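TA notes. Do not distribute before section.
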Amino acid sequence: MNAVRYLMKDTLEAALPECMEAILKKMQVRQVTFPFVEGERTLYTDNILYVESRKHKLFFSYLDNEIVNYQIYDKLDHIEQQLAAYGFLRIHKSFLVNMKHIRKISNYAVLMDWGETLPVPRLRFQAVREAFVAYKGAM
């Protein structure tokens, strides 16, 4: 069970509306739509595992019943701006990862929850680790 807020009996009437709003916001299903090479798709942000940049294309690794990939012609900087509010972190010039799926960060790499390891450059490592710790603390 995840606590969202703690309410005191003496402030219950004043605090309840804000608490309910926080709960609904936390439960809200977030979706984004992209014009992929395979056709326009609406994706749940929680199911986007990471986005990788390769040869002028971006590859979205997405968890449906299995891991599927979608391709799009766009810049990673642009997608990073679109997904920043949903807990995505740029760990490398070529990788934007969903922090919900990071299991561990160590040895200049990110271990994802399905077992894949993605590289983190030495110069970015400390900032990536701090951003992940701040994200986990905010949950």
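Switch to the second chain here.
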Amino acid sequence: MDQKNYHGSILPVDVATVLNSQFNRGAFRVMKQGNDDQLAVQIANNETLSGGQTALTVIIQKIEDGVSVKIGQQALFGVAASLGFSIFSALRNPWSLLGRLDDIATDIESLQLTQQVWDCIDAFARSVGASQELSERLRRLECDYCGSANPVGESNCVACGAPLGGIQPHTCSKCGYVFKTDEKYCPNCGTIKPVDY
């Protein structure tokens, strides 16, 4: 099961709505189930169309500062059987492929379903300003002395009291880019880091 977390102003119901509008047409149908905090979205072949049957389940769950999206393994047995039948028919009579072109096109589209779903979710997340990068509120720094996690900006370790100034990120005085303490130049604009860091 593949999983991605998106942090930002994004809700499970928003992701489910986008998946519904993108895939509930043509060769696929979409079914949703769940509540505002956790939704399961199943995308499957439309039974009235040709080609092998397939289904894919997307679980969207609310997490702190965003959503977690998990995509299960796509059921490809029906697609494989349909493609196998097309190959077997072509071996017996190559002209039979003409009658199965719609089936083959549907099967090829079904094989790309998982990637299409990820592309759709990624594009939506970007459009609302969400990303896989942790929000500033959730970032943590590890204390060099005891290994405890500390919020960014904390002057002393919350566990052992050791000073954290040496590991805190700094911003460039010219462009505002965040850089590490061991960098001598800003990676964004090349400005030399002031000596007082």
